[in-house]
Design brief:
wza like fold, Outer membrane lipoprotein wza fold like, 2 domains, three-stranded antiparallel β-sheet, 24% helix
Length: 207
């Protein structure tokens, strides 16, 4: 028995560490609380309706044009007509146009650049001006709330703000502590996607 006690004392800190790691892993996999990888600042641009793109053809400048992607996701270009653009990256659209123009251009060189881009998110709950917020740049959940007039400071629960997002045909909900960000804590900003719904709940009140 005396020989076993020192071994138990030696192993106890390691067992405790394993329990803590296991517990953290369980929280990270909870879709209601975990921050998705896409919450980090998005680097890849995906074209969508309302975006304006500039198509330049160096070998045939007469084909250059600036087009706004319509609600049906298409743009209309000289010689090739309607082209599906929404859902593609600028590089994917460029490769598509090179294929469509084919021998109608002398060199296989086309550039596609985004001139302007806006996307909607929706803010509801305990904010001053709930409704649709439009952005032309990557926007965080806190920035969206500020665009909606800020929190209703008398009722808002800033620690449990919920973001609902449609992913692969299913709604996913994430919980974000915006109070921690306002307090200056070192937290990762939650970047939004088009169509995200930000809900600021009401604090529980005792009567």
């Amino acid at each position: 028995m005396k020989n076993i006690l020192p071994a138990i004392k030696w192993a106890a800190p390691f067992l405790a560490a394993m329990v803590l790691v296991s517990g953290c892993g369980t929280m990270a996999n909870n879709p209601a609380t975990a921050v998705p990888k896409t919450a980090e600042r998005p680097e890849m641009i995906i074209l969508r309706e309302g975006d304006s793109v500039k198509v330049a053809v160096p070998s045939s400048p007469n084909l250059d044009s600036v087009q706004q992607i319509r609600r049906d996701g298409k743009i209309t270009l000289t010689l090739i007509g309607e082209v599906d653009a929404a859902g593609l990256t600028p590089d994917e659209l460029k490769q598509k146009l090179i294929g469509l123009y084919g021998t109608q251009i002398t060199t296989k060189e086309i550039t596609v650049t985004v001139q302007s881009s806006t996307f909607p998110v929706f803010v509801t709950g305990c904010v001053v001006h709930p409704g649709k917020v439009l952005s032309d740049h990557p926007m965080t959940a806190l920035e969206a709330v500020m665009e909606a007039g800020g929190f209703d400071m008398t009722t808002a629960n800033m620690r449990s703000v919920k973001i609902t997002r449609l992913e692969n045909g299913k709604h996913q909900t994430y919980k974000v502590n915006l109070k921690a960000i306002l307090n200056g804590d070192n937290t990762t900003p939650f970047y939004l996607k088009p169509g995200d719904i930000i809900y600021v709940p009401e604090r529980f009140a005792m009567f």
